[in-house]
Design goal:
heterodimer; A: 179 residues; mainly alpha; 0% strand; globular; B: 120 residues
């Protein structure tokens, strides 16, 4: 028994790359980001495939953001348990990144990310979860305030507050790099 | 002042969004991996739909099996009342006992005698 879901397939095709980048900015690892996106797609397909297609974007990005948050939490626990290894790994990664070009930037079809872009990514990583989520959904994904509130499970007022703080923090952190 | 800040925020947000969207391009290998992930997700939808469609039948079948299992011991005891009956146990005791059967006959006689004595 096979059922085709052309609408869902088309939605995934349109949303997967953005979701991948969102996850990749935080994880800094493409394979981890791919896992997050795949899990999110499976979850949306299982639970919400029967929902109207216009409900998919906020639901999908909410799942992606939750998965990213879970990943961050796991990393924090892991780094607390294996604190002596984490510092070594971080040092090694630093050395490697100095000697080798970024794996993500080697593909011919990849956009050359300049220093400003890398700084923006670093600034996004430093943002608190809620502020980063609202930035991702409202600014990057372009969801409306209402859709963002729905995706984040909070009020419209909270969305505006988080966004205001996120933009202020980012602009402050990227002063001189971004206009 | 606030208006200027809002304008700056808006310009910053627009530039950042533009740069982030530009960075979404991926190589062929990643595109292929994403296609596989998408197929898996759609396959999961099919599996889940199948589970959802057979779920009521499975539930009814499971309930029927449980009901049969619960009722089975009762129907056994109804078919073989002698097994669990007190008189059945007595009979079994007699059959398995080493005591002489004459003892039981005498016992029955003494019981009968005891019942008759008050009337005598």
């Amino acid at each position: 028994m096979t059922q085709s879901h052309p609408e869902l397939d088309a939605f995934f095709a349109g949303a997967e790359r953005r979701a991948l980048r969102m996850a990749e900015i935080i994880t800094q690892d493409r394979d981890e980001a791919l896992d997050i996106v795949q899990d999110a797609m499976v979850q949306l397909a299982r639970k919400y495939a029967q929902h109207p297609p216009q409900e998919w974007p906020p639901l999908f990005y909410r799942i992606v953001e939750n998965k990213i948050r879970d990943w961050r939490r796991r990393q924090m626990v892991h780094s607390r348990i294996f604190f002596w290894r984490t510092s070594n790994v971080a040092a090694e990664a630093e050395e490697v990144s100095e000697t080798q070009p970024d794996r993500r930037a080697t593909g011919a079809d990849l956009v050359q990310r300049d220093q400003a872009m890398q700084q923006l990514e670093a600034a996004l990583r430093k943002l608190p979860n809620r502020q980063r989520e609202v930035f991702d959904l409202r600014i990057w994904q372009g969801l409306s305030v209402e859709e963002t509130a729905q995706a984040m499970g909070c009020s419209k007022g909270s969305v505006k507050t988080h966004l205001f703080r996120a933009l202020a923090t980012l602009r402050e952190g990227l002063k001189g790099v971004w206009p | 002042m606030n208006h200027e800040n809002d304008q700056d925020d808006l310009a910053f947000a627009r530039n950042a969004a533009h740069a982030l969207r530009r960075s979404e391009a991926v190589d062929n290998e990643t595109t292929a991996k994403l296609a596989i992930a998408r197929k898996r997700a759609l396959a999961a939808t099919n599996t889940y739909s199948l589970i959802r469609s057979i779920w009521p039948v499975t539930a009814v079948t499971a309930a029927a099996i449980v009901a049969v299992l619960l009722l089975q011991p009762r129907s056994n005891s109804a078919l073989n009342p002698a097994v669990s009956d007190a008189s059945g146990v007595d009979t079994l005791d007699l059959l398995t006992d080493d005591m002489n059967p004459a003892f039981y006959r005498d016992l029955e006689f003494y019981q009968w005698l005891a019942q008759r004595r008050p009337n005598a």
